Amino acid sequence: MAPRLLILASLLLVFLFALHLAESRPVLESDMFMMSERSSLLNNSTTGIDCGGECARRCKLSSRPNLCQRACGTCCARCSCVPPGTSGNYESCPCYANMTTRGGKRKCP
């Protein structure tokens, strides 16, 4: 009985060690590239536009400011521009004006 228990315990330890090795893989260069791309989209540091500040300005009179700022932030990150004023003026940022939802409505406030 004791040898069986020893073999089972050994197999369990080997399995746990293999599982630990599989989950703790090293970070690859491609993973680092994807993380830096995601970070640059959020910060928008390549264009120098402050999406947070621009969207706060754009959405300050909105009846639903949180929804407005979330949509504006997405549009700003993709287009690197936010139209002036609190509404309209889409001609100054065509990318912002051309984004639509699945239902065909304008995505960007």
UniProtKB/TrEMBL annotation:
InterPro entries noted in UniProt: GASA
Q: Pfam families, alphabetically?
A: GASA
Q: Which domain of life is it from?
A: Eukaryota
The reply to whether Signal figures as a keyword in the UniProt entry is yes
The alphabetized UniProt keywords are: Signal
Signal peptide start-end: 1-24
Q: Please state which protein family the record places this protein in.
A: Belongs to the GASA family.
Name the record gives this protein: Gibberellin-regulated protein 1-like
From which source organism is this entry?
A: Canna indica (Indian-shot)
